[in-house]
Amino acid sequence: MSDKTRIVLLAFDGFPFYAFGRINTPNLWRLGQEGGYSPDGGRSGLPSTTYPGFTTLLTGMSQSKTGVRTTAQRPGAVPGWAGWDRCLVPTLLHAARDAGLQTAAVMGDQMLQRVLRLDDFERAWPPAGAVPPGTELDAHGYPTNAAIRPFVLEAAADRDLDLLFVHLNETDTLGHDLGPSALATMECVRAADAIAGELFDQLTPDWDRTLIAVVSDHDMVRRLPFPAIDPTTSFECAGLVDDWIADGCAAWVRLTSGLDAHMAINRLSALDGIESWRWREPGILLLLAAHGRTFAAPWIPVSGLHGSVATTRTLAIVGGGHPAVGRIATAIAERSPRLQDWSPTLATLLDVELPAADGLNLLEQAELESAG
Ligand SMILES: [Zn+2]
Q1: All structural domains of the chain
Q2: What is the mean pLDDT of the chain?
Q3: All residues with CB under 5 Å from ion ligand 1
Q4: Alpha-carbon distances of 164 from 21, 93, 113, rounded to whole Å
């Protein structure tokens, strides 16, 4: 076989960060011990939700370039003033494919696949963004980890693949429905780790040319028994909000035009349950809820929440026998990598151009640290 680089990017949706360790995730733990990991995890952007997280992860770009700012979708708001419902720029997978590399994706979220524009990707599961009839689905209508396991292992066995992206969704569904520390969520974490172990075994024949990056898109916190926040209902904030859209424990707000923005931000950020805010562009504000609080929405998860500062921690593990593993391990042990740092790093290893990426190349960072 050749000695060309092989990259596997393994992503867990909504992985409860605290569960990473020797007991619950022995396979991920071993990979991290032999390679490296960020003890405090990586960091997602805000809102810390699925669609913005994965578009940033797979493009290396901030939301201003990907256009994807929220996981919630409502015509008028999304696509509209709160962003786009599909990524505006090519992902690392598209760039690798266009550079002539063998690239595949196996995903446990057909909606996310569409957001990432991987639904028309030649080597993607589910094929053409449609889950085949008879596939076992979880309570939210997504393929279970057990259902996509055979496709993950089949892709990993293809020694011609240069880049494989795997997305396991089920930890997110159970975290939302039962809570990030529920017994059944922990069982799901252990089962997901077992699939990771089988995946790593499948990669051993070409271990020396393989680099595995393990990430997640956001953390999860328990929902506390407070009323959901609606920024339009308080007397102090009357008339301030032209439109808004909740995204878990974050919410995009479009201010009424012509307002004194300083006054509007002061009043909105003083609302009960608001922890902080971000200003992204004129007239548009991201409100962030306090720990365990959430915003009013047509559907609110029963037990687990994400979207705010409290859920920005992600898995950040690197392993495999590739010579670059040590350098990335050094970089992520020193400083929590952001989601946008992974694609520029992996692109460099694959010799693929990602000229518009905003993230840092973790390989260069390791060199800077060893020089300094
Ligand atoms: Zn997610």
Answers
A1: 6-222+307-371 (3.40.720.10), 241-300 (no CATH)
A2: 96
A3: 13-14, 50, 172, 217
A4: 24, 8, 14
